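Mods, move this if it's the wrong board.
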Amino acid sequence: MTSGGSELADRKNAAIRYVFFSCALVTVLTTLAIILVLVQGSVEFFRHVSIVEYVTGTEWSPVIRPQSYGVLPLIWGTLLITVGSAAIAIPVGTATAIYLSEYADPQVRKTIKPTLEILAGIPTIVYGFFALSLITPIIQLFFPETGTFNAAAGAIVVGIMIIPMVSSLSEDAMSAVPDDLRNAAYGLGATKFEVSTSVVFPASLSGVIAAYILALSRAIGETMAVTLAAGMHPQITGNPLEPIQTMTAYMVQIGISDVSVGSIGYQSLFAVGLTLFAMTLTMNLFSMWVRSRYREEYQ
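Not the wrong board. Structure tokens:
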């Protein structure tokens, strides 16, 4: 190649590198812009509301008088939905992943796994209507006192929604375990169930736990399905048959209300958003730490 051709190729490579760098930079700047907006709005909110009152108060009513700004009912509602959905998604998703990785025929796996992943593509508002039209009526058959909006329906529908994430990511981690480990266990007389639960599952534990945490992060940030199924009544209750409100549902409520821009009610949107961002960021950082701490590499 001539010196002119080599110089042209270098310029093309440099241009392509700048294009790719610009794409990566957009994502970083977008994240920083979101953090900046949330922090700026939260600072305005906390000029009028004590941080102590915000993090320790048990009443949340920034719009309706008498106004109160304790965020604990929203955090409680969010955690109630998250724990309830985890109780459904983790065992079902893990069992599905073990079946797909260790028991299913290749043809069956090719059919079931894409079908499961289709669930992840369904709009979340459809899940909300599914909860209202099917899950809540079933709950009311066993507990007639249950209202239209209740935490149990919200937890169940979010649990169903995140099963594909748990099963798909866990199955990928289990499939990455080398066959030499399986064959060694079989050589020692282990059954298929013992190989699945005592060899493959522990060997893929870092990836499986990361899948759990990512799915729970999705549950924490879920909005429309929870809003339709669980309602908009912020309260601290241990009864899953009562309505609750999550942080995301509150943000939807403020977004569609006639709250004036600049009011404390409007500024509370940023404080709740910053709290939600901190919770999901912590979960994602913990997921990254688990993967790096317990990751096993095979040759």
